[in-house]
Amino acid sequence: MYPMPDSASAKHMSAVTVAVPATTANLGSGFDAVGMALELENCFTVDLSASDFSVEVAGEGAESISRGRDNLFFTAMEQVYRVKGMALPPCSLSIKNCVPTGRGLGSSATAIVGGLTAANHLLGDFLEPSALIDLAAGMEGHPDNVAPAVLGGVVIATGGSQGHFHVLQLPHPAELEAIVAVPDFELPTSRARSVLPHSVPFSDAVFNGSRAALLGAVLATRQWELLHAAMEDRLHQNYRQKLVPGLSEVFAAARAAGALGVAISGAGPAIVALATGGSARIGEAMKAAFASAGVDSRILLTLPATAGAHIIGEGVFHEDHRSEVWR
Ligand code: HSE
């Protein structure tokens, strides 16, 4: 058993609100390694003054999010408390969910990164962002959503040794716009990964290795005219195509409308196009292409987010006058 937090300390924080961005992972060739934070956030308020675990959810996918102690946010908080050698005390969680769930926009990564960030803040920010990424990637199984969710911007992250990930944040691609077509159905990541092969032809591995190298260089040097070639992929999207009706039509429509590059967002089924202008036109073209395949979709016109997970409010409990102070 871990000890409970020291309630006798003169002053400790009892509540905190954290905002965590949506993310689009892979960007085509950068499978399980490259991700971009988007300007769309989930907000989580956790309050340690509660006597039992509880969860309230408003917004996107509210009905599908666990109200119990098994909510990913609590599991993530527990990891940080465990590193500190403490047990997670009962807490109430209130979620304002803006990131569509089950669409490939890093919704579960927001809960994981939110829980880690909130717990770390409540315990004095003793863990560095790199340690939060290691914990988050360990929970998620791959680092490409959680790393940009922690740091913001565009991040390349790959598995290292002993649970430590190699993480590199690239210069912020301020001129890029992200257009996301979000179909009206969910696709569990487990299902999208179940259709991937155990091995691929050597030529496909070479194809992706070279494109992923190019993707890193294009993102670092902003030579956007090479973005389409850099995002080409033969490792996952062709296998996932059967799970996303209209996929090739949406890709073609986005390109024809002026997108610089287009890919399945994360494990899908959302599709992300990147451009340096003409977002509305590209979005309309993607929506029409989905519709022609019988799929209803919403279009999200957004930007790469500079901010990763960040604290937007603190409740500080002062033992001496027992009041909550929010700022
Ligand atoms: N890289 C992962 C995949 C992202 O494509 O399966 C899942 O969120």
Describe this structure in words.
The structure is a single chain. The chain has 327 residues and is of the alpha+beta class. Helix content is 32%, strand content 26%. It has ten helices and twelve strands. It has helices spanning 72-83, 107-122, 129-140, 146-151, 189-194, 202-221, 227-231, 237-240, 247-256, 279-292, and strands at residues 11-25, 34-47, 54-59, 92-97, 154-159, 165-169, 177-183, 261-264, 271-275, 297-302, 310-318, 324-326. The strands form two sheets. Strands 1, 2, 3, 4, 5, 6, 11 and 12 form an eight-stranded mixed β-sheet that branches. Strands 8-9-7-10 form a four-stranded antiparallel β-sheet. Strand 8 (261-264) and strand 9 (271-275) form a beta hairpin. The longest helix is centred in the middle third of the chain and has 20 residues, at 202-221. It binds L-homoserine. L-homoserine binds next to helix 5.
What topology emerges from the helices and strands here?
Layout: E1 11-25, E2 34-47, E3 54-59, H1 72-83, E4 92-97, H2 107-122, H3 129-140, H4 146-151, E5 154-159, E6 165-169, E7 177-183, H5 189-194, H6 202-221, H7 227-231, H8 237-240, H9 247-256, E8 261-264, E9 271-275, H10 279-292, E10 297-302, E11 310-318, E12 324-326
Parallel strand pairs: 3-4
Antiparallel strand pairs: 1-2, 1-11, 2-4, 2-5, 5-6, 7-9, 7-10, 8-9, 11-12
Helix pairs in contact: 1-2, 2-3, 9-10
The structure holds L-homoserine (HSE).
Tell me which ligands are bound.
Answer: L-homoserine
Based on CA atoms alone, the radius of gyration comes out at 20 Å
Q: What is the number of beta strands? A: 12
The total count of helices amounts to 10
Mean pLDDT: 92
Proportion of strand residues? 25-35%
Helicity, as a percent range: 25-40%
Broad shape: globular
Q: N-to-C SSE series?
A: EEEHEHHHEEEHHHHHEEHEEE
Low-confidence stretches: 7-11, 316-327
Largest sheet: 8 strands, mixed
- Helix and strand content put the structural class at alpha+beta
**End-to-end C-alpha gap:** 35 Å
